[in-house]
Amino acid sequence: MNATQSARGIVREMLELGISDVVLSPGSRNAPLSIALYEAAKKGFIDLHVRIDERGAAFFALGLAKASDNYVAIVCTSGTAAANYHPAVLEAHHAQNKLLVLTADRPARLRGTGANQTTNQTNIYGDVKSHDVVAPIAIAPLLLGGPVHLNIQFDEPLLPSDENDWLDGLEIEMAADLPELDGELRVGEGTVVVIGHDRGTFEAELIQDALLGADVPVIAEDPLSFPGALPHAALFLADEQVRELLRPKTVVVIGRTTLSRSINAFIAGAENVIVIDPRMAEVDVHRTADQKFFTMPAIVGESSATEWWNAAEATAEIIRSDATWSEQNALRTIAESVPDGASLFIGSSRPIRDIEAFADVRDGISTFANRGLAGIDGNISTAFGIAFEFENNFAVMGDLTFLHDISALGNVPDVNLTLFIIDNNGGGIFSTLPQADVAGFESIFGTPQNVDLYRAIVGFGLEVEKVKTASDIERVINHPQNGVRFVVVEVPARETMASELKSLYQSVSRAVRIGLNLA
Predict the structure, then answer these.
(1) Domains (ranges, CATH) in the chain?
(2) Backbone angles phi, psi at 338, to 5 degrees
C-alpha cells in the first residue's frame, strides 16, 4: 500500500470515529496525511488547525480535547517535530486527556543509517501506548481514554497520483454516552470529601450528582465548580492546631490533590483514605489507599460540619477585610467576576493556588487547568484551544508561564479570549517556599524576566492594556469581548507579596483558633 492510500485509510477511519478537530504542523514526510486532511476539511468533515510550532500545536490540541472531551488528532513530520509533542503528550497521559498523536516517519529500513530527519520514534513517549504502523490499522479499539500514538511509516512517493473520491459514503459514529454513577459508597461521622482540581477525569456535574446524598464537609481545590464546598480550606488547614482539631476519621479523595501542602497534610492525618480515580488502573498504579474506586459511586451519609463552617467563615472575614492590592485579590476578583457561561483557564504555579485559597465558591463557569504534570509550558496554546468551544473565554497565568509560550502569539486564533498576565517579574511561587532564603535566590529561583510585557505583546500587533486595581479588572471583564486581548496585571513586588501572605496566614490562624476555642 502506497503512502497516499495509507494516509487516506487512516484519515477516513478517524472521521468515522467522530474525530472532528485535527491540528496539523507542516512538513514533508507527513505530506500524505496533510493532503488527505485538507481534502476532508474542504468537504466539511473536520476543522483543520494549522500550527507551525509542534510544541504549541500539541498544547493547542490539548485545549481542544479538554473542552470538547473528544479525541483530537495532532499530525507532524518526523525527527525533532515528534519530540516537540512530548510535553503535551505527557500532560495528556497523566490527566488522561484524549489526544490521537500521528507522527510521520521514514521507513524502518532507514533507521540507524544516518538518513535525514530519522530517529527511533517508536515508543518515543514512554508509557503512552504506541503503535509502529505501515498501513491503516483499527483505531477504534485503541481510543479508550488518554493519548494514543501512531507512528506511521511513509515511503516515497509521498504525493497522490489520482483524484479518487475516497470520502464517498463516509458514515460518522455517534458520540458515546457520558459516564453515570456506579454503585454506592456509604460514609459516616468524621468523613470529609476532598476534590482535586483535576476531578479524577470526572465531569463536575457527575461529582455534584454523586454528592447529592452526602451531608458531609467538602473541600474542593477548584472552588469555582463546587458551590457547596467549604471556602478557603487551604488557608485555615495550614494551622497545625486547627488541622489536629478537624482531623478526620475518613477522607474520600476524588482525583489528585496537587495544590497545597496543608490539604495533603490533612489527608495524611486521616485514619482511612478512600480514593476515587480511574487513572489508578493504568497511570497511577502505585497509588495507595485503604479503599479504591475506579468509577464514580453515589456517596451517601452524614457527618457534622459546624466546626468546619465556623473555620471557613472566620477565614472569609479576614480575606474580606483585606483591601490591599495584591496578587491574591487580583485572582479573587477575576474568579468572582467571570460571567456565567464562560470558560476560565487557570495557569500553573501561583495563580491556581491563589484561586484555591482566596476565591469564594461559585459555579456557572467551566474551569480548566493543566494538572496532569502541572507544567508552565504551553499554557497560552491550551487556552487558545479551549476557547474554540465557548463563546466567552478568560485565562489567567503568571509572567514566566506567559513568556514560556509566547511563540503562540504568532498564530492567534479567531476566538473571544481575555488573557490576564500576573506580572511580578519572576517566579513568585518560590518567594513563598523555603527556597526564599537561600543564597543566590534571585538567580536560580526568582529569575526576574525584566521584559516589558506590554511592548512585547504590542510587537505581535495584538490588543493589550495594563491594570493595577480590582476595579480595573472588573471593568475589563464587564466590557464585551471581541477577539483576543491581553491584560497585564501589575502587582506588588514578590518580596512584598510573600511578606503579606505570611502576615495573612497568621491573621487567619488567630481568627480561626478563636472561633474554634483553641486560643
Answers:
(1) 3-153 (3.40.50.970), 184-314 (3.40.50.1220), 326-491 (3.40.50.970)
(2) -60, 130
Helix axes 306-321 and 494-515, enclosed angle (nearest 10) = 140
Q: What is the dihedral of CA 49, 55, 56, 59, to 10 degrees?
A: 80
Residue 502, classified by CB atoms within 10 Å of its CB into exposed (0-12), middle (13-18) or buried (19+), is exposed
CA gap 18, 189 in Å, rounded: 46
Question: Residue 69: which region, alpha, beta or left (left: phi > 0; alpha: psi -120 to 50)?
Answer: left
Distance of CA 56 to the CA centre of its chain: 14
Distance, CA of 59 to CA of 87 (rounded, Å): 8
**Angstrom distance (rounded) from CA 264 to CA 348:** 18
Give the pLDDT of residue 495.
85
Radius of gyration of the chain (CA): 24
Inter-residue contact 121 to 77 (CB < 8 Å): no
Per-residue pLDDT, 123: 93
* C-alpha to C-alpha distance for 183 and 407, rounded to whole angstroms: 47
What is the CB neighbour count within 10 angstroms for residue 28?
A: 13
Closest-CA residue to 248 (of 274, 226, 229) = 274
Nine-digit cell string for 150: 501512531
Query: For residue 53, what are the β-bridge partners?
Result: none
Strands annotated E in 231-323 = 250-254, 272-276, 291-293, 298-302
The residues, ordered by sequence, that sit 6+ positions from 350 with a Cβ below 8 Å of its Cβ are 327, 398, 422, 428, 429, 432
Sign of the Cα pseudo-torsion (102, 103, 104, 106, in order): negative
Straight-line distance from the first to the last Cα atom of the chain, in angstroms, rounded to the nearest whole number: 78
Distance in angstroms (rounded) separating the CA atoms of residues 99 and 101: 6
Handedness of CA 146, 380, 22, 107 (dihedral sign): negative
DSSP code at position 230: B
| 184 membership: H or E segment, kind and range | strand 184-187
Helix (H) or strand (E) holding 131: strand 129-133
Q: How confident is the model at residue 432 (pLDDT cuts 50, 70, 90)?
A: low
Per-residue pLDDT tens for 151-202? Answer: 999 999 999 988 889 999 999 987 777 789 999 999 999 999 999 999 999 9
Which amino acid type is present at position 431?
S
